[in-house]
Design a protein that fits this description.
- By secondary structure, the protein is an alpha+beta fold.
- It is built from three helices and nine strands; from the N terminus they run ααβββββββαββ.
- The chain is elongated, with a radius of gyration of 23 Å.
Length: 258
């Protein structure tokens, strides 16, 4: 009689177990590599946005854009620099692909937010709003202008200058918080009262920021909100004081890196 060959049940189970172990090892590696690629695209986007800001400033008496609320009638900051950007995809973070900037004047859709600290030098929320002068910002290499904001499909065209770890339990615009969404490993629940849903606010990961001198980097929460010993030449009384972003008599704006 001809003897039939084949795998035994034990052999099949061993092969399946080996495949499962390999998958458990490799899938996280693939996910990390994919996130690295997204973060690299995001850094490139922010650099190109900063170059657009610089070209805008050269055409407007060396003044940078304003945030762009509707009352100012100048359009969002994206609209202001849009003529200097060749590809509108640059306004879209790969992690929030539904926040595609459509090129209109007052859309809220974008993957990046303009620092609320630099909303306007004068006349905020009026037709007389005017941008900060480049010469009036003493430390451009330490001044954040744009950073990761928004959730997928949730507005984030402006960026709070606040530590997300200290975010309140609820907020009508949680997309305005800096989103440390790259390689995130810790979040906190925040209630989105505008859409009446809970959001996961990343509080331990990396966020991409671009500075006024056009360099971009990924920072974690601790680096972005590093406590300062001195603020505008004055010694701080305690650590909580160092969360204050911008004293009234200074144009120097990077979160607690003085």
């Amino acid at each position: 009689m001809k003897k039939e060959s084949g795998f035994t049940l034990i052999e099949l189970l061993v092969v399946i177990a080996i495949i499962a172990i390999l998958a458990a090892i490799l899938f996280p590696v693939f996910a990390q590599a994919r996130e690295k690629a997204r973060m690299a695209v995001c850094v490139s986007n922010t650099k190109q946005l900063a170059l657009g800001v610089m070209m805008y400033a050269q055409d407007y008496d060396e003044k940078i854009p304003i945030l762009g609320v509707i009352a100012e009638n100048r359009g969002r900051w994206m609209w202001q620099i849009n003529p200097y950007i060749k590809n509108r995809d640059i306004f879209t973070d790969p992690n929030t692909s539904n926040n595609f900037y459509d090129g209109t004047q007052f859309t809220d859709r974008t993957g990046y937010g303009w620092s609320f600290t630099l909303r306007a030098a004068t006349g905020y929320a009026t037709t007389a709003a005017d941008g900060y002068s480049l010469a009036g910002i003493a430390k451009p290499a330490e001044t954040i202008i744009i950073g990761d904001t928004g959730y997928d499909g949730v507005p984030g065209w402006a960026m709070y200058a606040n530590n997300p770890i200290k975010a309140p339990a609820s907020d009508p615009r949680p997309g305005y918080w800096p989103q440390f969404r790259h390689h995130v490993n810790k979040t906190k629940v925040i209630r989105d009262t505008q859409f009446n849903v809970n959001r996961q606010l990343p509080i331990d990961g990396l966020a991409n920021f671009v500075f006024l001198d056009s360099h971009a980097k990924a920072l974690n929460v601790g680096a972005a909100f590093r406590e300062a010993d001195v603020e505008d030449g004055t010694a701080l009384a305690n650590a909580s004081d160092s969360e204050v972003l911008q004293p009234a008599n200074t144009r120097y704006v990077l979160w607690n890196i003085y």
